[in-house]
Prior knowledge:
Two copies of one chain form a homodimer. Chain A has helices spanning about 1-5, 35-50, 60-70, 85-90, 140-150, 170-185, 195-210, 215-220, 235-245, 270-290, 315-330, 350-365, 385-400, 410, 415-420, 430-435, 450-455, 460-475, 485-500, and strands at about 25, 55, 70, 80, 95-100, 110, 115-120, 125-130, 130-135, 155, 225-230, 235, 250-255, 260, 295-300, 300-305, 310, 335-340, 370-375, 375, 380-385. The first copy, chain A, has 19 helices and 21 strands. The first copy, chain A, is of the alpha/beta class. The termini of chain A are far apart. The longest helix of chain A is centred in the middle third of the chain and has 22 residues, at about 270-290. Chains A and B meet through α2, α10, β17, α11 and α12 of A and α2, α10, β17, α11 and α12 of B.
Amino acid sequence: MARQARPRRKKSQAIQQVPWRRLKYRTPPVKLISDDEIEAVHDASMRILEEVGMDFLHPEALAILKAAGADVTEGSERVRFDRAFIEEKIKTAPAQFPFHARNPERTVGIGGDELVICAVASAPNASDLDGGRRPGNFVDFENFCRLSQAFNVIQMNGGYPVEPVDVHPSVRHLHCLKSFITLTDKPFHAYSLGRQRNLDALEMTRIARGVPMERFHREPSLMTVINTSSPLRLDTPMIEGVIEMGRAGQIAVITPFTLAGAMAPVTLAGALAQQNAEALAAIAFAQCSTPGAPVVYGGFTSNVDMKSGAPAFGTPEFLNTQIIGGQLARRYDLPYRASNVNASNCVDAQAAYESQMSIWGLVQGHGNIMKHGAGWLEGGLCASFEKMVVDVEMLQMISEFLQPVSFDEASLGLDAVREVGPGGHYFGAAHTIERYETAFYSPMLSDWRNFETWEETGSETATQRANRIYKQMLQDYEAPPLDAAIREELDAFVAKRVEEGGVASD
Amino acid sequence: MARQARPRRKKSQAIQQVPWRRLKYRTPPVKLISDDEIEAVHDASMRILEEVGMDFLHPEALAILKAAGADVTEGSERVRFDRAFIEEKIKTAPAQFPFHARNPERTVGIGGDELVICAVASAPNASDLDGGRRPGNFVDFENFCRLSQAFNVIQMNGGYPVEPVDVHPSVRHLHCLKSFITLTDKPFHAYSLGRQRNLDALEMTRIARGVPMERFHREPSLMTVINTSSPLRLDTPMIEGVIEMGRAGQIAVITPFTLAGAMAPVTLAGALAQQNAEALAAIAFAQCSTPGAPVVYGGFTSNVDMKSGAPAFGTPEFLNTQIIGGQLARRYDLPYRASNVNASNCVDAQAAYESQMSIWGLVQGHGNIMKHGAGWLEGGLCASFEKMVVDVEMLQMISEFLQPVSFDEASLGLDAVREVGPGGHYFGAAHTIERYETAFYSPMLSDWRNFETWEETGSETATQRANRIYKQMLQDYEAPPLDAAIREELDAFVAKRVEEGGVASD
């Protein structure tokens, strides 16, 4: 038959994975501090906005806020906010909303009990064991995109996994977004680096979804992260991002980067109060600009090492702020973004335990979006192929842990206990034989063989095994189908915009 | 002066640690499954004890249980228990009690909101990067004892960190317990390997505490772990341990080792039902033997990899059973023991992430005793010096996380925000300068330097740094003071018992 005549690429033994699935928390979030303490943080953040205020570095923002009734200081960028104004304005932000992928089967939900996991984003360097550490480039960028698609537990790209500095900044967004759209069928992110880049990204996402503009504006399909410039500033491109994404009905994840002792007070209470002030002021601004625009409350409060100035991640302080950040977001009925981060320089025990601490802070705090879920190293300065595999293994275990356990009569297994009895063995029991193939989590990376076998086969660390796994995943990668008409429209748009020179860059 | 004339050993720069302190949970335990599901597990475990029963391999146990009213099958070791009998008998077990160290400042509490962390126990092999993996020996054993003493976050020895097979079994307990007593001033554990060993351990502990027998019997000062021989058996030496420790008012930690698919049903529900049946039957027996004897409900349900038969640790299944085990223990108002475990063959990312998963299962389930807290590798077949340091770092972070965070007016730092204002920097703020030295967790092992500095100084992994740290800790080790009269009495007792040949061994 003709179909069989077509040569199929020979596959190595497939890597075992958990299925793609939407994740929901099955226990309530942890209340680490009391409601009174949450109110104390809220009150402090309101006093900051009332007494100190925040700078909005764009006349359009100042005009929007002034029209809405905020206290804009004449001749300056300083805006002060009454607490009643803030509480009133943020009310129009939706508590949950869908986030559409071009493949409807990869659509996820933002907010409520749902957890969405992103790949690493925004690293200036990439590394693997073979090539070492190198500046970000387009080949690595696209390979990370392929892996984001191939690993089921990764649900979206939350930014460029690594910054491809070999692509000119004027057209980089066009090429990178095209890779997101063609190499993956999952939701993705566009940077807010000036209005025209936002507009290009919006049009490319609309094309990818194959829907008319009006429908696109009703269906969140693109996400941007808006970082405040702490303390208490919102920069020009971020303001343009808030305005353009909101007008198009798309998602802005408002995330102050409040490192205690550097860009925020040295106390966790103070840093959280400042985080809250910045997040709520920017969210209120987003709602003044476009009431009802989908936004997310982002928390990224950690601290610097006071001896060296280096940022610390995955520490007890970070655990505290990840959990308390969730308490704050829920006080305002907003979706919550947190992160999987670490400060290690290589994929070792430190990378794993700091990441685990971050993940458990996020899970206990009911993070709805996990940024930097897989691949982040060196406090974000490097995207590691091996770390991505280590993270995927850890996140697969979280995915499994979030599945309910059955306690029905058959699961309680009284018949098996009766059959086996005291001193017996369950390997051969009927109850076991019926279930053993799917009873337990089957790891992708963890090696449970005994020491002797492990030693005889080369004493590989998890990092060395991760290296083999990521390369096999790339070898086995298949691009998701894309409608030919959409592909054509996308190619034409990118070609035209590249020909026009993209956007003016510095 | 004479005192100054005594040469002091030159110390390298001291390793930074969190202080020795008792640890208390600050949030409620996680309720992973509903009360109805807990009742379903309870009901299944009661049906197991009513219908199938459990074997007690010792005539003394059978006599005690028969006298108490249990259904002992004539001419066999099988005992069936009515659920009313179980519920009635376990009521006399205390919900919490102190665990006395020979140094009163190292006494801890078992049960309630308290967490007590043990060093690794019972590994047949030891390893470090210099010497590789070797069979357990007395030199390694004593070095692990020194480290258990030196690391503040380790609160006790929960068994021999490594089995010193170069010491004859007939006298091993005498030498090892003497090391616990002389090299540490923290609480410790004695194995239940036949009545005479229990009696020797009890007398040595009484001597170490320097108290008369009557007072010793009122003050729990020694712990033993009682493992059931799953499924549904309690062996002779374990029974003797329950009897002798209970009579002396000392602590029995009753821990079924229920590996789903091997010694227990392949389902988590079934394995937990069997764990609960075995634990409660053994605890009821302990209370029949000595009403009011201090006992702990131990949970150690994991699964085997159904392809290889290898036990799995730190998996989603283990997380589930660690948390649900806590729900069960609290249903009976008993202290709860869980573990920090992993199946990795080396101190790599897998060792760290599986341990973290275990730790977070225990913390969310409010484990009161963390067995194998520091140093466990290879599913318990190896005690690793480097893994001990990695675990200590992870547990120090848990210790810090359990400390409350202040949200008072000074901590909220409004004055600092006013001083710094939008676009400023907090490094020089008065609020920062007053607090920066003690504001944040300062790691022992984690390296937060930038990549370039880290690379220039040798690109060490966390495991390589852990190697240096453990050796420095040993170099800096100082034995805790011990009263000369106690030391003399202890030496005399051990010398006499060694001369007598210790105990008969196989």
